[in-house]
Amino acid sequence: MNKCLSLVHLITTCFLISLLVLAQNELPQARIMNLIADPEQVTVLHVRPGYVSSVRVLEEVSSVVLGDPGSFKAEHSEAEPQLVFFKATTAKSAQTNALITTKGGREISLSLVSNGKADHSDVVDYVLNCERPRSFLIASAHSSFVVGDTRNVAQEGPSSRSSSEKQPISQEPQLMRPDRLENPRWQGKLLRVAVGQTTEKEQEMAVPFAVLNASARTVELLPPQVQLAGNSKDKHRKAIKAEPVAIKDYSITTRRLAPGARADGVVVFERPSFKESSERLLLAVAQAEEVDRPVLAPMAFVAPIVGGAK
């Protein structure tokens, strides 16, 4: 009788252990998402330890940056130039952000979320596909820090427009064609930036600029940014405050510079209506390896009258 009870107890124990193992090995809720590429949106990507999440973009990937490389891992191979793989490397819950930059100048912002191994019923995004809407170009009515620069504006003629139609400055071919600056006044050391004379029309400003790689290695430029910066009013701190100004369009001859190489470009943005006396309008240009150390070049807040001195 005791042997029978022991056998029943053993069978019951093995059955419970099997159920526990099955529960621990239960597959998560797998999900495949399609994303309309929009640089103004941040997409949440659910990952889980022991699983890999893939992000497929529309262009060849240039760089991938992680906010917390200790809890997450990002992988990218030249054999799959449009794929980026994300993994959670800790069994604990963790969150961070990631930024994918393509060679065409587009950026995809992600929030990586991992609930660890505690919740076995949690959703895991196996694949995130970035889809193209009608065009990857961002309409000029939307403000963005990353705007497509592949539009052929040189073929547009003034005869195709109505004389009474209001046209933004960014659609004028002569302003979006990067011209080479003569006698540039460089800012910075290894990465040098210079700006030219600004042109303004109905609060929209077009600013030509040039970038020179004075270092001994090849660098890759990030899309230019514009900011309104000034000193903090705190008497005990010498902090500098900076507010981003949305860019409407930009164009640049190249974003990959060999040692001694130069790139010329133009950026279009809507100028703020006013500023404080201590604030300056700055063009910020950074390389992909040092996004936190941009070169800041001051720009005129009010464009000079055509034919006048800057």
Which features would summarize this protein structure in a list?
9% helix; Immunoglobulin-like; 39% strand; mainly beta; 5-stranded antiparallel β-sheet; single chain; 310 residues; 2 domains; 5-stranded mixed β-sheet
Explain the overall architecture.
- The chain is mainly β.
- The protein has 2 domains: 28-131, Sandwich (Immunoglobulin-like), CATH 2.60.40; 169-299, Immunoglobulin-like, CATH 2.60.40.10.
- 9% of the residues lie in helices and 39% in strands.
Write the layout of secondary structure elements.
Blueprint: H1 2-24, E1 29-36, E2 42-47, E3 52-56, E4 61-66, E5 72-75, E6 83-88, E7 94-102, E8 107-114, E9 123-131, H2 173-176, E10 191-195, E11 199-201, E12 204-213, E13 219-220, E14 225-231, E15 240-245, E16 247-252, E17 256-257, E18 262-270, E19 280-285, E20 295-299
Gist of the model:
This protein has 310 residues and is mostly beta strands. It has helices at residues 2-24, 173-176, and strands at residues 29-36, 42-47, 52-56, 61-66, 72-75, 83-88, 94-102, 107-114, 123-131, 191-195, 199-201, 204-213, 219-220, 225-231, 240-245, 247-252, 256-257, 262-270, 280-285, 295-299.
Order of helices and strands: HEEEEEEEEEHEEEEEEEEEEE
Estimate the helix proportion, in percent: under 10%
Q: Biggest β-sheet, characterized?
A: 5 strands, mixed
In CATH terms, what is the architecture of the largest domain? Sandwich
Query: For the residues shown, what is the average pLDDT?
Result: 75
Strand content: 35-45%
Number of helices: 2
Query: Roughly how many Å apart are the termini?
Result: 104 Å
User: How many whole angstroms does the radius of gyration measure?
Assistant: 26 Å
What's the name of the CATH homologous superfamily of the largest domain? Immunoglobulins
Instruction: State the shape.
Output: elongated
The count of domains is 2
CATH class of the largest domain: Mainly Beta
Secondary-structure class: mainly beta
Parts with pLDDT < 50 across at least 5 consecutive residues: 134-175
Number of strands: 20
Q: Identify the strand order in the major beta sheet.
A: 1-9-3-6-5
CATH topology annotation of the largest domain: Immunoglobulin-like
